[in-house]
Design a protein that fits this description.
about 90 residues, about 5% strand
């Protein structure tokens, strides 16, 4: 169940194929749900195929670099270490 209040956009096949081809599916899936949904919605709202491809390329580049989201700086949450208690 999604906690998002925005419409959830299903991923088009061409986006799924591009992520798989570039080996970025794990990077995509590691992003928060709102970011994944925003990316897909932003791409599919483009009216022209050229614009969709331009936006898709931006998403792929950002996922590959791992340091931005929609042209904004992004820092992934790193898993916290679980230090042993006592010793």
């Amino acid at each position: 169940m999604s906690r998002q209040r925005r419409p959830v956009h299903p991923m088009p096949e061409f986006v799924r194929n591009a992520l798989a081809e570039k080996g970025l599916m794990d990077s995509y899936n590691s992003r928060p749900p709102y970011q994944r949904n925003d990316y897909v919605g932003w791409i599919i709202r483009a009216k022209r195929p050229e614009t969709q491809q331009k936006r898709l390329k931006q998403m792929l580049d950002e996922l590959n670099a791992g340091d931005s989201y929609m042209n904004m700086k992004y820092r992934a949450n790193k898993p916290r270490s679980n230090p042993e208690i006592g010793s």
